[in-house]
Amino acid sequence: MIERFGLHESTFDPLWYTHWALAATLVLPILAGLLGARCAPRRLFPVALACLPILLAGALLVFDYQQAGLLRWQWQVAGVEISLRFNGLSGLMLMITQWVGAAAALYTPGHLRITHPGKRARWLWPLMGVLISSLSLIWLAADLLTLYAALELMGLAAVGMLLLSGKPAALKAGIRYLLLALVGSLAYLLGVALLLGYWGALGLQALAEVVEPGPVTWVAAALIGAGLALKAALFPLHGWLTPVHENAWTPVSALHAALVIKASLFILLMLWSILLPGTLLAPRFVAWLGMLAIVWGGLIAWRADSLKTLVASSTVGQLGYLMVAFPLLLGPSITPLAEALAWEGFWLHLMGHSLAKAAMFMAAGNLIIATGESSLRGLSGTSRRLPLSLLIFGIAAVTLMGLPPSAGFTAKWLLLQALVISQQWVAVAALLAGTLLTAAYVFRVFRYSFDETAPRHQYQPLAPGMDIIALCLALAAFALGLLAHLPLALIQGGGV
Amino acid sequence: MNAAWLPLTTLATSLLAAAVIFLLPEEARRLRTSINLLAAVSKIILVALMVVRVSQGYEDTFSFQIVGGVEFVLRADALGVMFAGLSSLLWLCTTIYAIGYLEGAANRKRFFGFFSLCVASTLGIALAGNLFTFLIFYEMLTLSTYPLVVHSGTAKALAAGRVYLRYTLTAGVVLLLGVVLLYSLTNDYSFASEEGLSPYLNDHRGLLTLIFVLLVGGLAVKAAMVPLHGWLPRAMVAPAPVSALLHAVAVVKAGAFGILRVIYDLYGIELSVQLGVTTWLAVAASITIIYGSLRAIAQQELKPRLAFSTISQVSYVVLGVSLFGPFGTIGALAHLLHQGFMKVTLFFCAGNYAEELGIHRIDEMDGAGKRMPLTSLAFTVGALGMIGLPPIAGFITKWYLGVGAIQAEMYWVVAVLVASSTLNAVYFLPIVHRLWFREGPAHGKGAWPKEQRLGRLETHGWLLWPAVFTALVSIGAGLLAGLPFSPLDWATRVAVGEYLP
Description:
The structure holds 2 protein chains of 2 kinds.
Chain A: H1 16-39, H2 44-68, E1 71-77, E2 80-86, H3 88-115, H4 124-140, H5 144-163, H6 168-199, H7 204-210, H8 215-231, H9 241-247, H10 250-275, H11 281-303, H12 307-324, H13 326-330, H14 336-371, H15 382-385, H16 387-401, H17 407-421, H18 425-449, H19 466-482, H20 485-491
Chain B: H1 5-23, H2 29-55, E1 61-67, E2 70-75, H3 78-101, H4 108-127, H5 131-149, H6 155-186, H7 205-222, H8 231-234, H9 240-249, H10 251-267, H11 269-275, H12 277-298, H13 302-322, H14 326-357, H15 368-371, H16 373-387, H17 393-407, H18 411-437, H19 461-479, H20 487-499
Antiparallel strand pairs in B: 1-2
Helix pairs in contact in B: 1-2, 1-4, 2-3, 3-4, 3-9, 3-14, 3-19, 4-5, 5-6, 5-10, 6-7, 7-10, 9-10, 9-14, 10-11, 10-13, 12-13, 12-18, 13-14, 13-18, 14-16, 14-17, 14-19, 14-20, 16-18, 16-19, 17-18, 17-19
Membrane topology (chain B): Multi-pass membrane protein
Domain NADH:quinone oxidoreductase/Mrp antiporter transmembrane (chain B): 128-421
Protein name (chain B): Monovalent cation/H+ antiporter subunit D family protein
């Protein structure tokens, strides 16, 4: 299992330009962000220009991985060994991060131009840069300390972005998020300290070699698990998620739901597969929570009155699908076929959800900006006036519902097949019920929008590109479903 | 030589048409109409090309990998091309009709965009080369018909849309479960495989039966078999072209076609008989046929009567499938086409009456034959065909089904057929009688509910000619059934391929 996370020796040393690509990947987002604070771009073009080298650096890293296999770096800094590795999974996550990040960045100028948020808005750029950099570091980090630092940095940047909107409700939600994130970090740190004190290994690979099952490992795994579950808004620790998204700016919500919570989930799965390989109970427990999450997330989204709450709540249910796969990824006596299917389905679903959720937040943001109303009722009659935004919402929703042809469907297919092979019928039922629940709340939106008897509003015109970017993300989620084997080829096998 | 581009291009024409229509502004009426017609005509040409290729013995296949062990396959085989031909021909008629019908209405861009998407899905269903691909387009069809059902945006339409989604999405989930179970058992499984699932019969009899029930259960919702038919009568609130689409071209047919695929190309007819599922299917189809006819008699409005008649008629296809023997198969396949032509005629006519004269109820139709002779003639042809009178296409199917039932030694099916024909006569002949032999507003008695003079002829030309054309096709399919490339001939070709591999 840990081979799949690239925690093994590499065959080739990275080439000279690979080092530069790595540096560019990690540093350029911050530099671009600082530049953004300096210039406060109001057009798409400069933002696109700044995103380009970052995307190129990421693509170059993936290309190098395809040529040379696993890439590793190690440095001694003040007596502490820092290690990074780049395998197919890191590459996949890095690409998703950079592309969704670029989409959010491209969306931002139009959004700011229309909403006029004031002077504070320029600080969004550096925070966004730090967020992308720290996320990239999380996918690459191969020791506990780097992981912690990156996680903390990402959390703080996320809180900063959420607070920027400056509304009292946003401040309240943001502070609550900050406190919970700190509690989560603390639990995580405690777990790490326990591991370090007992096994004396910081590097993930070294840790995997020495760690043995026992009370210390279990307590550490529990602490780390709880801390990260809180940060990842896994059911039932998701209470902070909806108010945060309710008040945040659209690109911030998109980034947060698409990437930030996924990072905690990624770390959780990686560390548990080191600490708890082949355990029965913990992953089972997560899976049961996941089934509840699918149902509960669907229900609260169904009951939601405001569009943003609906979109945010659906994240809870969607994470449930991922949690259901835990026993197949970590549990004992799983057939290799089921494990491989679940592994591919897990990451495909994660990627599909990232793209679709970002698209959905943008579409919802566009609808809210255009109608000036945030409630579902306010959408009445939009199918006539805002067909494109609504269509994007629909395309993104197809992925979330797990209907073809979308990444959500292909991922659900893989997960279902894995669950059927390992005969977990309750989980199969939960996954299928998830489709219907998602459809129930998604089509509530459409029912309002198709209402022709609604009074006519004045609609605020959108900036150019705002719909197109969201459409590209939503269509990317479609394409990912049909061409799933291309990205999945990166993470097949042991990451060799 | 494999022309992989052919099925792909055929699919792409309607997808592309949908994309372009969505991109055009609402006001670009002429351009949208031209694109619609251009796409429809070029699709017919492409499908005709496929028919030629299939008759030369080629099966053009396009495929690419989706994930390990699962492929996306489009294959132009005889059965698929048959359904593709039906849907593309009727698409042209329905498009022309819809352009006339929606003249001046709102949201036409949305309507025609999803209309094209809907037909693209139907074509995908026809050409799907394995169950996974079939599932993709089957669900796409569900999603793309929803905006059409709720098109008018009234509370009633929205409620109908909700019911429609409840039925079809649940069915989709059931179908998905069945497909996943099957794939877990057999890996990727092509419709073109010769062997069928018989190697699995001894070890997995129970599982195979379960999968069959799930698959056919999921498909039966769209095929509107009792008791899963509840969505269809409600969906009648949609505009007439949508009803035509639901009943004759796409949705109901997709369900019936799926059942054909499952039995002939997935399980194989022999295996289905060995599993003992066909008898149950025949019983379910018979119940649907009788129940639908009885409910149709009780309806006082024209469109709901036609809707219940569809429920009854589509199950002829399922009935034919479940009879073991070539005649039953030929009857089922031919009826898939014949019912499409006749039912679409009836819906076009019902729409014409509603548009031109404001007629919705059957008792308002007195003497309409004098006011709208061509429409009424077309309606009469459709109605008589539904009853099964020669020389209209419906007769051929009933004849073959009856012979098939006798060959399969299921004599009670003959009784069902006779009873059903009688019931069809009971609910169609009074309408025909009212049209021609009663005196109504056209003879100076009373007034039409809401008369509009839509065109120089008895109604708008775009509304009239499609109905006349499909009526002529219905007669032609019956009269010229012996000629090559007639529906019957093609159905025989498919059936022969099925029984003489």
